[in-house]
Write a structure and sequence with these properties.
Layout: E1 2-4, E2 11-13, E3 23-28, E4 34-39, E5 43-48, E6 53-59, E7 65-71, E8 77-83, E9 86-91, E10 94-95, E11 109-112, E12 115-120, E13 123-128, E14 136-138, E15 162-164, E16 169-173, E17 179-184, E18 187-192, E19 198-201, E20 207-212, E21 218-223, E22 230-235, E23 241-243, E24 252-256, E25 262-266, E26 272-276, E27 282-286, E28 296-297, E29 303-311, E30 319-327, E31 333-336, E32 353-354, E33 360-365, E34 368-373, E35 385-386, E36 393-397, E37 403-407, E38 410-414, E39 422-424, E40 429-431, E41 439-446, E42 455-463, E43 466-472, E44 481-488, E45 492-494, H1 503-506, H2 510-516, E46 519-523, H3 529-541, E47 548-550, E48 555-557, E49 566-568, H4 572-585, E50 590-591, H5 598-611, E51 615-617, H6 623-626, E52 630-631
Parallel strand pairs: 41-44, 45-46, 46-47, 48-49, 50-51, 51-52
Antiparallel strand pairs: 1-2, 3-4, 4-5, 5-6, 7-8, 8-9, 9-10, 11-12, 12-13, 13-14, 15-40, 16-17, 17-18, 18-19, 20-21, 21-22, 22-23, 24-25, 25-26, 26-27, 28-29, 29-30, 30-31, 32-33, 33-34, 34-35, 36-37, 37-38, 38-39, 41-42, 42-43
Helix pairs in contact: 4-5
Amino acid sequence: MWILDLGTGETEPVVGEEDAAVYRTPTWHPDGDGIAYIVDGQRIETLDLSSNTKDTVHQAPEGGELWAVSYGPSGKLAHVLVEWPHTTLFVDGEPLTAPPDEPAALPPAWISAEEIVHGMDGDIHRLSVDGSSEAGTIPFSAVVYAAGAPPELGQPVVLPEEFDAQGIASPVLSPDGESVCFRALGAIWLLRWGGEPERIIGDGAFNTDPSWLPDGRSIVYSSDRTGVPNLWRHTLGEDTGEQLTDLETGAFTPSVSPDGAQVAFQDEEGATFVLVLDSGEVRELAEPTYRPGRPSWSPDCSRVTMAVTAPVSPRDDSGHNGCLVVDVSSGESTVHTVAEHRSIATRGDDGPVWSPDGEHMIAVIDSRVHRVPVDEAGKPTGEPVVLSELVADSVSVSAGGDVLFLSIGELVLLRGEEDDAERHPPGLRCTQREAAPARVIRAGALWDGSSDDYRRNVDITVRDGVIEEVTDAGTGTEPDLDASDRTVIPGLIDTHNHWHLHGREWAGRQGPLWLAYGVTTSRSPGDPAYQMVETREAIHSGAAIGPRFLGSGEGLDGRRCHFGFMRCVSSEAQLELEVQRILGLGYNVVKSYQHLPVYLEHELVDRMREEEVPVVSHYLYPALSTGLNGMEHTGGEATGSATPGP
């Protein structure tokens, strides 16, 4: 808790500096000499500012939580107790309401020493604190108008038969800077500058996240070909691979050390490990964190860094995407932000990546690639410097310091200190898989989703992946599939998933599982952008098995994020870069997340309406006023002027 002097503008901490408790909703005592507040949702404390004396005046019962406090003009203290699913309003420890009345969990408003006005059961109630007069309601009504009709959908549900592939996932620049490895269309590819892409690993397994050995002749990657994803080594020009790990918790996002002796990687819990290649020894380097980014080694192999959440306050999991730096020998770690109030774009492939000279880290910040000066321990020593004005994702660095990143489906190479960026289209075409042969399915019962009853004993003709007709079951003909003892329903549409929230862990199992549950179309309102596009294209081409995938890239959040696939958006200039990515990669939907400033949400919705792309979020207000097209959850932890849903 802080006090702000309105005359001088100076601030002074008064409580909470010495502990990790969460302090909320301060209220001034009417004499101005003290305050009351809630601690950890469990107790109400008062603080006498002149003597610095603290007292606990109310304690929440077991299972209850205190949400709001408010002093009245006479010094009486009101608060709200939440005992799910009920709430109760108290004054000086005595209940003023009882079920079925449900007062809002907000600070009560005093209109006199003896009367409170409070929201309850959808009305505004006037309550006497001593019961001397009956409670009444204050008439109020308001008409809510939606900001606009949903847009026509401009992005096709079915992709074209053939087009240039854009799903270039986790590209990494070779040590000599002359080629790149990446995942696309369900395989790992090698592209030498000026040449054609070459598929080097494509056995149908989920193969991903290549990392070069320093000799430039081999890569380490993650594959689920034996079940649980683990690390493998592939030597260019050879057909076989060598399995390096066999861990039940998996091995993901490998990063080979500059000396080629070790590999840093993470497991499904978010812990970071080091594999010694010669001996096969695996040891834990860092404890689990929530969705850390891909590891990167310091040039002298003494430290490993990765993107992690750096919470700003203990009362919220959201924070800045900062850099965790771990000493490989001691295991000691520190967390730094790349700059004050700024974040690495996502906790994925956006860095930080240590430069070969050890004096910088490369990271995507505000959707542009930056160079951040650091000391030998990886602590930033100056402001980030923009290296390119292009929209940027997925950075990697060669042994000579060349920087590679993605920009709207193209590979962009920055060589040394040169200003000109080399733009390299990946040169891959996505071709729609051939439709299955026409088939006749005989169903004992068909529920078509619109009739009042089942249709009995029918033949369903499916041609080119589309139901062509439904007729009475023929006599004397044999169906291709006899389901006469079963009920057939249309393919289900999953309307909300995050395919890559566990994409690496679930690997190639996810698509077939959706189909096994009868889901033939799946929609994601938020995923790492290039991972999403790669999955969408791999399924469309037949390189991967799964339902039709309608996807989105990272949700657009405010300055602080929690999920690794959210983007921290801080300005109109950055929002313009986000719009370029949205349109360039063909999102089917956009999510405006809970902390995005309302003025930016207005602008986002207006832009997307012009482009016929729907925008959704997690709250009811201000969604109605900004014109959002959908509410993805019935509640959310929105802050500022964005309130949760019902």
